[in-house]
User: Fold these one by one.
Assistant:
Number 1:
Amino acid sequence: DVKVTQSSRYLVKRTGEKVFLECVQDMDHENMFWYRQDPGLGLRLIYFSYDVKMKEKGDIPEGYSVSREKKERFSLILESASTNQTSMYLCASSDPGLAGTDTQYFGPGTRLTVL
Amino acid sequence: AQSVSQHNHHVILSEAASLELGCNYSYGGTVNLFWYVQYPGQHLQLLLKYFSGDPLVKGIKGFEAEFIKSKFSFNLRKPSVQWSDTAEYFCAVIPFSGGYNKLIFGAGTRLAVHP
């Protein structure tokens, strides 16, 4: 079974703090993703990476950055946390199949609260 | 912009009732279609997917979905729900638009099944 793990299930930070969310996958997947999940909005893509040291902006990258130094690890960074970044953050990974056929596997999520 | 609409945000059913969750997307070209489910406290997981072929797709736990291209729809169905189907259901679409084909999620439908 594919396993995607995230470093924390719950996190509480203060406004202005730098926050690191870590994600690790154990299936040697090429692609990794960070989403945020908010009630009534579904999942929105923040950033994704299709190779080590490669990254692409998703639909809502503002206020976030990412790092992928190793294939199995994808980090999401909030440079200066703000209250509107309080959310559930989901990491996912996939292998690139034929265009659009890759199935994404999700981690358990990190519920971040910014006070 | 490409979007996915899920018409019902909350659905409440009694056990053994039939279920149909609506999903429509706004993209005229080729798409791949997915339904994901998130049980309380669990990871988001794939329920079923459609890439090509028979437009009636069967997934896990007795779920099925029908792709109707002329209606841009991919509705999820189950003839008889169980209490254990209580979850949030997300429709997602990959529209082919050149470059990396991103997964676009609907807002989700919360299903509560009462015994």
Note: The two ends of chain A are 37 Å apart (CA to CA).
Number 2:
Amino acid sequence: DAGVIQSPRHEVTEMGQEVTLRCKPISGHDYLFWYRQTMMRGLELLIYFNNNVPIDDSGMPEDRFSAKMPNASFSTLKIQPSEPRDSAVYFCASSWSSGNTGELFFGEGSRLTVL
Amino acid sequence: QKEVEQNSGPLSVPEGAIASLNCTYSDRGSQSFFWYRQYSGKSPELIMSIYSNGDKEDGRFTAQLNKASQYVSLLIRDSQPSDSATYLCAVNSSGNTGKLIFGQGTTLQVKP
């Protein structure tokens, strides 16, 4: 079975540009999570969805960040406008509610560099 | 106080030794605890979960939980160079069980 699929794997952009990161969760999983990882702050939860509905977005750093999940098989994380401090690896993860939601399956990540 | 705390390391052990990784958490109501392993440049992968006080063994790995002390640990017996990675402790938020909080991770180096 395919795992969590993220795109792009690498993104280099200039400050002020819009960035869109994409995620396809594992089929049948009804939880989807967006995390950001940096050396300084570690792995931070940005937002998570249950059955396509955003449940907790308290980790979204500011209004420049937005996330959507239009259907069970697709989610986006958008940064507009991007800033150098947004440079990080962004992970998408999914899990299913019949298991424990702590058992996350991570995608390979999207490495974002904002110049 | 951070919600989940780990010593960042690096923790260096010789091949064949026992590696002991520790984690403390602040949410006394948390019920679910996890250890993830992350190789350099890769994504985290779940290696152990534990939900009740005591020990849970899986092969060379043993997770230990003490809720009274708000303490979780991971023991790796007969450490191998392939165990060299960053180990992330993760805890479910008691008020929001879908929310998984990660520690900063401990880097383990197993020297041949």
Note: The mean pLDDT of chain B is 93.
